[in-house]
Amino acid sequence: MGLVVQKYGGSSVADAEGIKRVAKRIVEAKKNGNQVVVVVSAMGDTTDELIDLAEQVSPMPAGREFDMLLTAGERISMALLAMAIKNLGHEAQSFTGSQAGVITDSVHNKARIIDVTPGRIRTALDEGNIAIVAGFQGVSQDKKDITTLGRGGSDTTAVALAAALDAEVCEIYTDVDGVFTADPRVVKKARKIDWISFEDMLELASSGSKVLLHRCVEYARRYNIPIHVRSSFSGLQGTWVSSEPIGDKKVEQAIISGVAHDTSEAKITVVGVPDKPGEAAAIFRTIADAEVNIDMVVQNVSAASTGLTDISFTLPKTEGRKAIDALEKNRPGIGFDSLRYDDQIGKISLVGAGMKTNPGVTAAFFEALSDAGVNIELISTSEIRISVVTRADDVPEAVRAVHTAFGLDSDSDEAVVYGGTGR
Amino acid sequence: MGLVVQKYGGSSVADAEGIKRVAKRIVEAKKNGNQVVVVVSAMGDTTDELIDLAEQVSPMPAGREFDMLLTAGERISMALLAMAIKNLGHEAQSFTGSQAGVITDSVHNKARIIDVTPGRIRTALDEGNIAIVAGFQGVSQDKKDITTLGRGGSDTTAVALAAALDAEVCEIYTDVDGVFTADPRVVKKARKIDWISFEDMLELASSGSKVLLHRCVEYARRYNIPIHVRSSFSGLQGTWVSSEPIGDKKVEQAIISGVAHDTSEAKITVVGVPDKPGEAAAIFRTIADAEVNIDMVVQNVSAASTGLTDISFTLPKTEGRKAIDALEKNRPGIGFDSLRYDDQIGKISLVGAGMKTNPGVTAAFFEALSDAGVNIELISTSEIRISVVTRADDVPEAVRAVHTAFGLDSDSDEAVVYGGTGR
């Protein structure tokens, strides 16, 4: 008998009908001979409504209390889901994150899981129950306070439980059919990916793909837990994310997995930085001390005549104010002329392990952008990804052009061969 | 420094404004030099909304999951209240029933508190925090499952915590000014009671007064915790419930504390019962086995000619069906002619320890009812209470008549003297 962990997002359990539909699907998995653990998010807009209430009573809600508040959402959905399953004649028990043994650090609102001790879940399964677990929440190791895991936390809960219980698969149910070669809202011809490696999925996630968060995929890779991303509204196979294709699936790794884009970032350019050792370090120490996460970094070639250079980096728009303030405050220590802030940028990324061994991918990428008349402002690469920053307005057209150029459109032949030498 | 436990009901924290108003009041108590523990109910209609959701997914929600669901309500209100207090510049921490050490038995939906181990509350207080505790909930001793205490459970939580923490007073904040000599919706001239003994309060509570539940008063009496029932909307003194009048209050015990009424009961008459030993036992064993709680019991004098008698008893209307079914099922074993069910009855009770020593109270009570043209169907008495059953339609007039006759009206002189000998 296999052990399956299923995770259902808020849109899948938005109302009583949704909960009943999900309950039927869970019972199917149980009837198929599996032990079933279900991780569930808060219903639909519940979390937003709770946040709204918090803002009405306090402009700066304290972390501990904010977590206590938000975790009420999953408590409601998991209890209702357990009731709905029992109403179908099957045994189910719901567990809070704390009861399920999800132990975290004490960083409220974005706690990290440091251990999972699912003794009560194991007992419930052994007694023939379906176990329903509240996603997104845990209990802190030192203070025994309720914590939340931050954005996408329910996916992480599911993968962490799957790892602790040595599950065969972690099924992530959502409102889309799987991971696509590009955002289907932008690229009509985007194709559902049948299988993708952890590495490519990690790059897609950190490049703007919203289906799975980086943190959840990273956890799954570390413990080698296959993820199956699929729709809770259909019975279709979705996208498998794993180290190797699963079972008898003869899926060959695509050269290019997909095109991701992201318009949530801004660019800061530090102008007139003396080109001497320690300058970049001073800038990024300032940013790090302000607890701002940065993404791409580019340093221009220094102008010989002045001995000054410019350093640009991208960061979430939401952290722009904080970064600017920190830099301005430390301007005397760092030494620069001025700051430029630009939040009208977009990032397009091409991801695929195949680019390691297929020369010419980079050239073809830039040609596609050039043919579409898209100007490139910054470039950054990893072994299996190329990213460029463009004007935000150019993003949709750029994504479509690249998607077509690499033969990813659903009506094109698959194989695309690249000439040239090296990337 | 004194320790005060305050309890706020759902109507006091119905929205963000209510929560902010309550937060100010709590901070006042803290500023007055007290250690403050606050027990809070779910906001306004939250519990009803959750029950409605449960009914949508399952006609018979399981006890364990139902409790898990309902406890989300207090989790929301307590976290918001803690945030609102912190926003006023004071430290506050919220605790679930489980975190607060409220240990119960495993009877879901109406668990009983069997122990309170408020170690975390004590620590929070010692560190200068205001402690906010979820009312109505606990954790079962054996299975560590979340439980709820049933109707009025938050009051019981407050009194139990007050006892465990050896508080000076348990303040119950509600939407009325205190306990009245009669229901002010029925008797316009009803008077707020300044002080009432535990015993009289217990009788009022079991006779239909809704302000405090019997269970909560019983707990307070056992541990001798003074209760102060008052309005969260005004700064007025409310009603003190304690063994003796508190502090320098020279309040004399009234002869009559008040008039309670109850129209939530029905009457079942078992007609044609053989008048021999064991018959009543058979009837009430049947009722007890069906887990139906009964109130008044009256057996008529047997008719000599037939050797048959009638037995009548009252019970909550909500349990009428269950009792009738159980009796019909056991009719062969018990032996009776027929059952009569009457849900158009009402009960009027006069409560006051003074009736023990003031002869004539019973006579005056019956005279008042007679003068008002109210027919009496059943009578039951305790040492400090007389109750009668009448037609439901007669109840308002009967309550007003008795209230006036015993000098309880707010514009009458207080002292009323009764003549006659004995009750």
TrEMBL record, chains A, B:
Q: Which InterPro entries match?
A: AceGlu_kinase-like_sf, ACT-like_dom_sf, ACT_Aspartokinase, ACT_dom, AKii-LysC-BS, Asp/Glu/Uridylate_kinase, Asp_kin_monofn, Asp_kinase
Q: Which domain of life is it from?
A: Bacteria
Give every ACT domain span.
Answer: 268-344, 350-423
Q: Which reactions fall under this protein's catalytic activity?
A: L-aspartate + ATP = 4-phospho-L-aspartate + ADP
**Is Protein biosynthesis a UniProt keyword of this protein?**
no
Its pathway? Amino-acid biosynthesis; L-threonine biosynthesis; L-threonine from L-aspartate: step 1/5; Amino-acid biosynthesis; L-lysine biosynthesis via DAP pathway; (S)-tetrahydrodipicolinate from L-aspartate: step 1/4; Amino-acid biosynthesis; L-methionine biosynthesis via de novo pathway; L-homoserine from L-aspartate: step 1/3
The reply to whether Calcium figures as a keyword in the UniProt entry is no
> What is the documented function of this protein?
Catalyzes the phosphorylation of the beta-carboxyl group of aspartic acid with ATP to yield 4-phospho-L-aspartate, which is involved in the branched biosynthetic pathway leading to the biosynthesis of amino acids lysine, threonine, isoleucine and methionine.
Protein name per Swiss-Prot or TrEMBL: Aspartokinase
